[in-house]
Every structure is written in structure tokens, then in C-alpha cells.
Amino acid sequence: DGKYGSYGAPSDVRLKESQTLAPGDEVFEYTFVALTPAMREVTKRVRARAIQVGGDDVFILVAGSTAARWKQAEPALAKAVDSFATRPAPEFSAEMSAYRKKGVK
User: Fold this and answer.
1) Alpha helix (H) residue ranges in 1-105
2) β-bridge partners, 95
3) pTM recorded for the entire structure
4) Positions of E strands within the chain
């Protein structure tokens, strides 16, 4: 499913590198082969960052390119992935929820 699985499941998935930045915060690189709309195989290389927020939720940013263009694209992709950050949403009290229901901001 999704962008890389639209024309068939990705194959030959290989983890290239993994780095834990903090508990619940990991950056990893992997390669895989995906099918194009013309049903040709193309090798992709991806850098992703997964951050766990609030104990149960995980948010993932995935940035990638074809393996052939990786050297050119990698600096911009690394900058985007390194800048990815998350934080838990603020918790609202019952009192604040009541105000929101009344339309008070």
C-alpha cells in the first residue's frame, strides 16, 4: 500500500544503517526495489526517522530518491529528516473542554 507499493509490494528490502538518537527516536536508511507505473523495477534508497510520542504513538518521516540520484539528493533529504521533530499535544482540562463546547476561545 502507499506510494511505493501502488504497483506491487516492494521487494529486496535491505536495512543499510540504523542509529538511535534517543529512546523512542531512531533514524534509519534502507533500500528496496519498487515497480513504476510502467511496471519497471527501480531501486529506491530511503532515509527515515521514527519518533515515539506519548508512549503509544509513533510518527515517521520518510524521504527518499532513486538509488541512482542518491548522492545528489542525500544532503537535502538528510537535512529534512534531521529537522523532523514531534511533541505531545497539550492535554485539556474538563474546564477548557467546556469552554470549547460553548465556542469560547
Assistant:
1) 70-83, 94-102
2) none
3) 0.74
4) 11-22, 25-35, 41-53, 57-66
